[in-house]
């Protein structure tokens, strides 16, 4: 009888200990690359009224959530830095183009800020990482197509775009 009671106690204790351990497989998590977009340079006069075009090339395994048309979902791109304050909410339009054979994925953003803003940080982009974790050098901004406009809609020259990246 003592042997049966001992084995029953041992079996019960083992069951309790193992049931608290889970499967031993970590839950999958989605990693994110967070890009803080900025403009650099000096304005002769006035303020930036619009980022007329900024195209970011994304590395393999990095995407952004979109609807069926390729339009980036709300919340993926948000105003930050210079455009995060004030009562006028920036109007953001963006298109994600998935990678194809021979070309990397791109994200093109247009942003209008009626109150205007000075050079500096203007947007935060949260990308999904589905492959290996990229480094900042795996992303790029096409400076040749980067365009800004002033509050009157005139082209601004002499500004460049840059970003910083963090992984969360």
TrEMBL record:
The keyword Signal applies. Keywords: Signal. It comes from Geotalea uraniireducens (strain Rf4). This is Uncharacterized protein. Residues 1-19 form the signal peptide. It comes from the Bacteria.
């Amino acid at each position: 009888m003592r042997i049966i009671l001992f084995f029953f106690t041992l079996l019960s204790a083992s069951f309790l200990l193992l049931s608290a351990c889970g499967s031993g497989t970590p839950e999958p998590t989605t990693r994110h690359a967070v890009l803080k977009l900025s403009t650099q340079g000096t304005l002769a006069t006035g303020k930036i009224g619009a980022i007329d075009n900024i195209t970011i090339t994304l590395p393999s395994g990095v995407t952004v959530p979109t609807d069926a048309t390729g339009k980036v979902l709300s919340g993926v791109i948000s105003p930050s830095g210079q455009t995060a304050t004030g009562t006028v909410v920036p109007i953001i339009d963006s298109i994600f183009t998935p990678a194809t054979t021979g070309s990397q994925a791109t994200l093109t953003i247009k942003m209008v800020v009626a109150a205007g803003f000075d050079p500096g940080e203007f947007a935060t982009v949260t990308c999904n990482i589905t492959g290996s974790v990229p480094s900042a050098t795996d992303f790029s901004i096409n400076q040749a197509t980067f365009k800004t406009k002033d509050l009157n809609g005139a082209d601004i020259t002499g500004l460049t775009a840059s970003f910083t990246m963090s992984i969360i």
